[in-house]
Amino acid sequence: MSLFAVIPAAFGGPEGPAAAKARLLLLDSLGCALAGLGHPRVAAFAQAMQAGFTGEVALAGARLAPAAAAAVLSAATCWDEANEGLARAHGRPALPVAPLALVARAQGADPALALAAFALGYEVAARAGEAWRIKPGMHVDGSWHSLGAAACAARLAGLDAEAVARAVRLAACQIPFSLYAPIAAGMDGRNSFPAHAALLGQMTAAAAAAGMDAPEAGFAEARRIALGHAAEAVVAPPGTWLIEEAYQKPYAGVRHAHYAAAAALALRPRLTASPRRIMVGTYAEALRYAGNRAPRAAISAQFSLSWAVAAALAQGDLGPAAYTEAALADPALRALEAAVELVEDAGMTAAGLRGATVTIDGLSETIHHVTGDPGHPMTEAETVQKFTRFATPALGETGVARAIAALLRDAPAEGLFGG
User: Fold this and answer.
1) This model's pTM is above 0.85
2) Which residues, 6 or more positions from 138, have their beta carbon under 8 angstroms from its beta carbon?
3) Helix (H) or strand (E) holding 386
4) pLDDT tens digits along 296-345
5) Nearest to 340 by CA among 353, 323, 320, 356
6) 373 contacts: CB under 8 Å, gap ≥ 6
């Protein structure tokens, strides 16, 4: 089935459960972006983008054109590794798509249009992610996401279904080739990948508006040339809302570390002294992807089981504060991280289960699921709670209430980014 067949089915915007999930994902993405904007490197990115993309969107002390604002928000959204994901896509379809819809809302776009455009972009990106299976050494962020960004941007621009399809076809013929190398090197350049996808999506939407086009077979050719996939991609059929399957993260950092962090947080009230020995038993995949020790950079810490447990114990949370420069320089947190021992739970690995057991000086806690796992979706109340936690430093209590009303109840979207 053609990837682009989803467009007519999704074009009118969702109703019911899909619409409700879209609203939650927009709110969650905004919270992650606002927390990300609080990091000096992200604010510096916004200031640097202003030189070439000056405009009227106030963001992190800069005034940016809408396209640049969406790009900066995309980088900010994944800065703390707390944003949504979709297992089928092996990535985060909303990453560059939600910022486009959020910027549109901040500029006064009709709430129904912004919601429909976001849902459309999500569905296109989700199916592209299903089909785009990367090789070792590649990274998904900023690659297939550009197709979803193109669909969203074209819909926001008021283009019809055929023009939206043209924008997606144009993006499919120039999918970025991104590498895992920055993460492996402990560098944060990975966070610029979704910014590129947001810009590329907006450019292809403009090209489609001008009448430019590209062959539909371009996506299959890109898969064959770049990835070696000769077989036709199998993706979800029209009418299946993949957005309903999206997961939201309760914590910041790689999802593999969430089970151990949750176990540590459950143990924390029972501790009567500073931990001396901390043992984490978990499944092999978590150890493989999140076995970083003594991380020196935020992006390394976000992929570190031992850091997640130490931060949870030290801070009583695993949020954006775990990855600040102050946290990374905290000797007490460093000492806790050094006390963590990581071992494989062979039973979990053999059973194909996710989870973790944390044992601290004889006290143990086992966690087999966290919010966002299949059967345990994040509720509206939990989403609002997370958003409030992430966004209050940027917006204050009044601004948080306004943002919640705007994205969940279609109230005016004033001060969405905190100026």
Assistant:
1) yes
2) 177, 178, 179, 180
3) helix 380-409
4) 999 999 999 999 999 999 999 999 999 999 999 999 999 999 999 999 99
5) 356
6) 247, 354
